Amino acid sequence: MKRSEQRKKKRKWLRNFLIVTTFVLLAGIVYVVAQYNSGLSIGKEGLAKEDDMLADEFKGADPQFGEINVLLLGSDSRGDDDARSDALMIAHYNQTTHQMKLVSIMRDTYVDIPEHGKHKMNAAFTLGGPELVRKTIKENFDVDIHYYAIVDFTGFSKIVDVVAPDGIEVDIPYAMSHGIGMTLQPGKQVLHGEQLLGYVRFRHDIQSDFGRVERQQEALAKVKEQAVSVHSLMNLPKLLGVVEPFVTTNVDKRTLFTIGKGLLVGKSEKIETLRIPVENSFENKREAAGAVLSIDFEKNKNALQQFLSTEDEEGMTGSDNAKTGEFGN
User: Fold this and answer.
1) How do 87-94 and 67-75 pair as beta strands?
2) Structural domain range at position 52
3) Does the pTM exceed 0.70?
């Protein structure tokens, strides 16, 4: 074959390659934009961007040693004058180990709220938004919070349906109906967005609010497992569109990307969980604020700090993991 013919074939191959590559890139851009807009249309009723509960400027500490603590606040009464956080958690992520941990602080925990005196934990959100919640956690448990995310519960069900279109399987211990606008039958069930929201919000059970906190942690752990699947990666633009109207956060895009990438690397890792107050560290009491959990602060502060420590992440065994998930008093 003549050299000129070889050059022609090479140029033709290169031209075809560039045409195909350009087409794929354009198709990808169209797909991402279409999926994102589709997500926005699903989340168009979101209230997050209209929220007035930010109050003071959030002054989270700078992350140290690649460890990030994000304050997660969930509520369906946002925009009301008496809005309170219906779920209060700390999501901890370690960029080195790619381990994620989840701490639930029970809303009736009786704490000192800076400049406001003794109140239930969830009152901090009403009195001063996420910044006052951050201050309250720092004062009572000496734990630094770096970022916050406020999630409108209306959007939770929509997010679940995008992340897990085939539903999330749970084992319901008994019939649940009061206060959730539906009836969930006992036994293993596959729940979709609205049903899963009812499952995590049901309060009238044997364990009262303790059971609700346990279900919240269970649901988030299972949603996380679905979120790192191939299906969810394909739907990532759509998910971002859905999340946009329902979540108010100061987590920058670079940090979000870092966390997302790390979760993919450590996708087989289970989320470790802790509840504050820990077992055998509190009493049920009645104060001016109503029925509260009067806690042993030293015991709970030590448990929380140990749970979030790097040494704990590197040396925790399987049996130790199980202990962190215990509930009850």
Assistant:
1) antiparallel
2) 48-324
3) yes
